[in-house]
Each structure stands twice: as C-alpha cells, then as structure tokens.
C-alpha cells in the first residue's frame, strides 16, 4: 500500500506558504523601522517571491487574506491578474481549470461580446 | 469509504489548512490516506485535477480583488478586451465583472457592446471617428485610442446602406464581418424618406420599459412589470431627424432637428436621468429569452422615468454658425476636431423649447465633421449613446439638403 502523494499540492506546500508569507511580513515590516531598502531590491524580491506554481499562488492569496497582509494580497492578486491578461475566455478557463457553466444562450452572448471586443 | 468522500475529505482538509495556515496536519492526512488504500493510485492521478480545480473555489471577495485589478489597469482599448474576456469565463466571473464595470456615463469608458446603447459621459466627450467606404457603401465607427483625430481606433459599429425604391436604410451591426440580413449582431437602423429630408432611428431592442414596438399593422407595448420580457424582433423608434433649408435657402447652413423619443427633456436638466439599457436580450431577436441573465437585477432595462412616454422629449438642434465676414463662410468652433469645411459638419445642442425665444443650451452633445477624404470625427456625450450618435451622423451623409 502506498500512501497517496500529492505532488505540488501537498499540505506541506501549504504549510510552507504560511512561513513564507510570515517571513515576507517580517521583511517588509522591518523596513519601516530600519532604513528603507532600495525600491528595485524590493521589487525584484516581490517578483521572485511569486514565481511559484499556481497551487502555491492560490494558497498565498488565501493566506494573505486570512493573515490580513495587504501588501502580499496586492502582490498575489496582481500576479493572478497578470496571468489573465491577453487571453481569451477559453484560455483563461484552461489556465485556472474553470468549468464553462453558461447556458447555450448565455454562451452565444459571450461569444458575440468577445467577437466584438477582439475585432 | 467511498472514492467521492475521500476526495471531499482531502478538499476539506486543504481548506482547513488554508484557513488556519499553521496547523500541522500530517497525522490527520495519514489517517485519511490509510482509510482508502484501494483508491490510492487513482487519487494520485487526480492530484493534478485537484490542483487545478482549487481556482474555482477562490472565495468571491478574493476573485473580486483580482478582477478589480484587471478593470482598473485595462482602462483603454485594445487592452480593455481583457475585461470582456474575464466576463466570458464563467457565471461567477461574469457576475462580478458586470458589477465592477461602471456605465460609460460614470466611467467615460466603453467596455461591453451594450455600452454603445448607453448614454455617454456627462463631463467629457467620447471622441470617435467614422470611415466611409464609398465602393461598398459601408461606414465604420471607431473610438479613438489616442489624442489624434484618427488612429487605428477600436472598432465599435458598422453600417451598410440599403437603397430601396421609396426609402433608404442604413443597417447597423456590431460585427463588420457579418452584415448580412438576419445577422445576430444587428442592433438597429436609420431609415430615410424618399427625399432624404426626414429620418427615423430604430433600435432593434426596447430602449426602456413601456417602449412601443413599431410594426406595420399593430403597436405593442412592452409590459412594464415583465421580468422576463418576450422580446419580439423589433423596430423601436428612438429618434426622428429632419433637415430643412435655412431661411436663406441653400445659401445658408441647413437646419437639423432631432427629436429623441427615448430621452426625456429633463435628462439635460440638473439631476436628470436618461434611460439606460443594461443588457441585450438573450438569444435571437426572434426567439423568446427565458430568464434574465442576472437574477439579481429585476429588470433588464434600467427603468426610465415612469412617465417617459408622456414627458416632453429631448429635442436637439444644430448650433447656429456665425457668418465670418473676412473668410466669407459660416463658422462653428469645433475645437480642432474638424479640419475640412463641409456641409455635413454640425454641432447638436439641446434645444430649450420652453425657454425665451427658443434658447439653446451651450453644451455640445454631438459634434460631427470632416477631417479627410472619407474620414470624419464624431464626438458625443450624455445623454445620447454611441449608437444614436452614429445613426444621426449617417443621416448627415444621406440628406439631400445641400448648401452652396
């Protein structure tokens, strides 16, 4: 018998997210007391921080919301927004594995809207 | 333990972990795993699926955080199509996006096709341009992307001229690629009389509750209380335009008179409101939509003032140009948006019928003028919509009233 192993979706990754976000909170809050780190350094730190798989990103959003860390919530939500940009509805559904639950009439309306928007 | 409940347990477990963040749950997970050895390998295969489906469970308030960022950052076309794309992902995304996006009157932005039927902004004009194709007798409306008079633009509407023995129709569509008869992207038309002196603008959809359908044999009133209206293929007259010669005959600029039957005169007063369509009816014009798209909205159409039919209608007239003695021509201040003299050029202002000596309001509601061969600017604002503006401008192409 093999215990099921979840790859990147293991609970440990979620556990990792929280310490990760705590350490961010520490590093960002410490800048208010010490001399401010250069803006470019913070920016690249942020960019590196969100280079994670989508599952971890999801966990980070929930963690940031639960722990009420606004900066992290902004960063993670913006990252997701950036993933959405320049994609069609079908591509967005694929990226986030979202089910198309429109009725045929609604689907026709959506198609018409997107046909017009992408013209 | 059934397979389904195993998956549900694991999902709940992930949810617990996400919510509480720090609790170690290895022992709990081991207990869950130990309970279902037979499905272990199947669960392994489903790991990826579970990873993906988590996004469908993103709480609405967090999804909203993401979508608000899209709406804010993609303010201008062509990137604004990301907003429309998000509204086409699934019902949850659509509901939030439609709430987040404000009407053009408030945001000065066009987002969904329905924006073209909604009044423009109060404080600024939306600067558009029209390209004419003489060979195919078609006209294309774009909204400008930059400060330039005309650029690549974002396509808005297309019109096709259809000449008949006793009248001419300009059929207006959302899709320049499908302007055939019966196209589902047809949204209205401009019809001119034989002489090209009187025009009627018809909307394919009811402009407000209580709108009267114009049909050859009968007039039907759309029920005021209908939540799921059966919308017949319609011709709802929304404005009547007439052209007359000036008192100076053809030596003076022609006079335009537009009665906006779907807009009350009070719309241009302080605190006035113009009716706003909120959704296109679902399905073909000939079919009967069953349920309004958003159950949270009780009526698809923002209800106009209840006495819309009885109230005085808004009348627009063209602003009187002044005679410029030195240049020996009639002049209007187009603020740089019109660069070629043409009899087609005009500025429409709200006419104050009740005011002393037929006063005009100062605010130019619609301005149209030539900037090049087959190229014209069209600037409009509240209380008229892009669709109505386009139709009124098309009449300027068609009218036979000329000026020396």
Provide a descriptive summary of the structure in words.
The complex is a heterodimer of chains A (119) and B (404). Chain A is an all-alpha fold. Chain A has one domain: 2-Layer Sandwich (Potassium Channel Kv1.1, Chain A). Chain A is 71% helix and 0% strand. Chain A has six helices and no strands. In chain A, α3 packs antiparallel against α4. Chain A starts with 10 loop residues before the first helix and ends with a helix. With 404 residues, chain B is α+β, with helices and mostly antiparallel strands. Among the domains of chain B are: 50 residues, no CATH class; 210 residues, Tubby Protein, Chain A, CATH 3.20.90. In chain B, 22% of the residues lie in helices and 27% in strands. Chain B has eight helices and 18 strands. In chain B, the strands form four sheets. A twelve-stranded antiparallel β-barrel of chain B has the order 1-2-3-4-5-6-9-10-13-16-17-18. A two-stranded antiparallel sheet of chain B has the order 7-8. A two-stranded antiparallel ribbon of chain B has the order 11-12. The termini of chain B are far apart. The relative contact order of chain B is 0.12. The chains are: A mainly alpha (119), B alpha+beta (404). Chains A and B meet through α1, α3, α4, α5 and α6 of A and α1, α2, α3, α4 and α5 of B. Chain B: This is Tubby C-terminal domain-containing protein. Chain B: Pfam families: Tub (PF01167). Chain B: Belongs to the TUB family. Chain A: Pathway: Protein modification; protein ubiquitination. Chain A: InterPro entries: SKP1, SKP1-like_dim_sf, SKP1/BTB/POZ_sf, Skp1_comp_dimer. Chain A: It comes from Aegilops tauschii subsp. strangulata (Goatgrass).
């Amino acid at each position: 018998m093999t215990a099921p192993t979840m790859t990147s979706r293991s609970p440990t990754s979620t556990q990792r997210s929280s310490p990760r976000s705590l350490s961010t909170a520490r590093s960002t809050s410490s800048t208010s007391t010490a001399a401010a780190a250069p803006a470019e350094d913070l920016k690249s730190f942020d960019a590196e921080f969100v280079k994670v798989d989508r599952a971890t990103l999801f966990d980070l959003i929930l963690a940031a919301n639960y722990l009420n860390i606004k900066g992290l919530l902004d960063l993670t939500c913006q990252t997701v927004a950036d993933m959405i940009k320049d994609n069609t509805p079908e591509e967005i559904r694929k990226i986030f594995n979202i089910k198309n639950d429109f009725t045929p009439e609604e689907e026709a309306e959506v198609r018409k809207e997107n046909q017009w928007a992408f013209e | 333990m059934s397979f389904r409940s195993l998956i549900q347990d694991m999902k709940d477990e992930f949810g617990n972990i996400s919510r509480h963040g720090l609790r170690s749950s290895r022992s709990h997970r081991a207990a869950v795993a130990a309970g279902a050895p037979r499905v272990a390998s199947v669960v392994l295969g489903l790991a990826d699926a579970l990873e993906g489906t988590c996004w469908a469970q993103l709480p609405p308030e967090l999804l909203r955080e993401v979508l608000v960022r899209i709406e804010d950052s993609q303010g201008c076309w062509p990137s604004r199509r990301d907003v429309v794309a998000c509204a086409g992902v699934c019902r949850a995304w659509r509901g939030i996006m439609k709430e987040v996006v404000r009407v053009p009157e408030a945001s000065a932005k066009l987002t969904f096709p329905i924006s073209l039927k909604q009044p423009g902004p109060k404080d600024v004009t939306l600067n558009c341009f029209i390209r004419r194709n003489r060979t195919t007798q078609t006209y294309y409306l774009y909204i400008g992307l930059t400060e330039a008079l005309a650029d690549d633009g974002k396509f808005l509407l297309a019109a096709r001229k259809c000449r008949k023995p006793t009248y001419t129709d300009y059929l207006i569509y959302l899709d320049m690629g499908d302007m055939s008869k019966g196209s589902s992207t047809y949204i209205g038309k401009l019809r001119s009389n034989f002489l090209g002196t009187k025009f009627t603008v018809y909307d394919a959809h009811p402009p407000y509750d209580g709108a009267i359908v114009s049909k050859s044999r009968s007039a039907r009133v759309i029920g005021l209380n209908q939540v799921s209206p059966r919308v017949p293929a319609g011709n709802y007259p929304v404005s009547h335009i007439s052209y007359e010669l000036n008192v100076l005959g053809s030596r003076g600029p022609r006079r335009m008179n537009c009665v906006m039957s779907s807009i009350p005169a009070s719309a241009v007063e302080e605190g006035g409101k113009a009716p706003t369509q909120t959704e296109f009816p679902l399905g073909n014009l000939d079919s009967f939509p069953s349920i309004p798209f958003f159950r949270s909205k009780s009526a698809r159409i923002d209800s106009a003032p209840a006495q819309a039919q009885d109230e005085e209608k808004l009348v627009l007239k063209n602003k009187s140009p002044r005679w410029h003695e030195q240049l020996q021509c009639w002049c209007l201040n187009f603020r740089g948006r019109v660069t070629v003299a043409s009899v087609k050029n005009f500025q429409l202002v709200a006419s104050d019928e009740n005011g002393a000596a037929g006063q005009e309001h100062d605010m130019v509601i619609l301005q149209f003028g030539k900037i090049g061969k087959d190229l014209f600017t069209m600037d409009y604002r509240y209380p008229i919509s892009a669709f109505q503006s386009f139709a009124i401008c098309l009449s300027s192409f068609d009218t036979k009233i000329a000026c020396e």
